[in-house]
Amino acid sequence: MPELPEVETVRRSLIGKIVGQRILSLRVADFPGVLADDRVEDVLARIEGRVVRGVRRRAKYLIIDLDDDTAIVVHLRMTGRLSAVTHEEPPLRFEHLAIEFANGLDLRFSDQRKFGRVIHVDGDELGLLEQRLGREPLEREFTAAWLEERLRRRPGKIKAVLLDQGLIGGLGNIYVDESLFRAGIHPERRANTLTPEEVRRLHRAIRVVLRAAIDGRGTTFSSFEDAEGNRGGYGGRLLVYGRGDKGPCPRCGTQLVRTVVGGRGTSFCPRCQPVGG
Ligand SMILES: [Zn+2]
Question: How far is the CA of 259 from the centre of ligand 1 (A)?
Fold first, then answer.
């Protein structure tokens, strides 16, 4: 599932292709649910002729800002994918939606599992969405002191707390497992029992892991690609994610463990991430 680095990678690959471009048309194939509750003709009437002012990312959402202060919000969820291709390109596999631009490009949304959404929202709706999302972990406001203060109120397991999009926006299963490993923290530790030193290590690990993953253009696990069809290069640099029960810890050689925390498959090293902290 695409997380912050993957969505950021898609964003960067889209900027040069659609920013400043005028929307000519919108096509929806056999799955109108991709627009959530909206009807194709209504959305088309609202976005036709609008110009893309910018492409932003907020948590795991891609936000295409239009010149009338509305926006197209894309949530890739499990298998959603955005591709910028020419109008002439035949429909992609699992393609559900295409936005046609005046420069001859289409922005195509394809999604095998159909959990992803492409939603046109006005400024108020966008504000509500952004309000319920937590802090951006790569922004200046995400400090170790802030994280420590927040974790102190949370008795839940640290992994589940880090996955809460209302606390930190954009972390998912991959980068939480990687961050906890680098910080040497067991995924089932109670968040409010972390010492200030552990929180500082965790804070640093989250930022290091996310920055490195963005530099590597994300992780390709099942279907992730950027808008130009490039696969992510970070997968080979994952230390524990997806490796539980398969191999030794890259740091100490102990067999990694696979378990389930908060309903999510979780890999960790029982030696580098001891239960007692
Ligand atoms: Zn280890």
Answer: 16
Q: Which residues pair with 97 in a beta bridge?
A: 28, 109
* CA dihedral (225, 228, 106, 119) positive or negative: positive
Tokens of 275: 């239960």
Residue with the two structure tokens 């991709």: 34
pLDDT digit string, tens, across residues 96-122: 999 999 999 999 999 999 999 999 999
For the whole model, what pTM was predicted? 0.95
CA-based nearest residue to 225, from 83, 59, 16, 77: 83
CB atoms within 10 A of CB 251: 14
**Between the CA atoms of 256, 260, 264 and 270, what dihedral angle is there, to the nearest 10 degrees?**
-30
Distance 229 CA to ligand 1 centre (A): 35
Locate the DSSP E strands across the chain. Answer: 23-28, 52-58, 61-66, 71-75, 80-86, 95-101, 105-111, 117-121, 257-261, 264-268
Asked whether residue 264 carries a pLDDT value surpassing 70, the answer given is yes
Cβ 211 vs Cβ 4: under 8 Å: no
Kindly report, residue by residue over 49-78, the tens digit of the pLDDT. 999 999 999 999 999 999 999 999 999 999
Cα 224 to averaged position of ligand 1 atoms, centre (Å) = 29
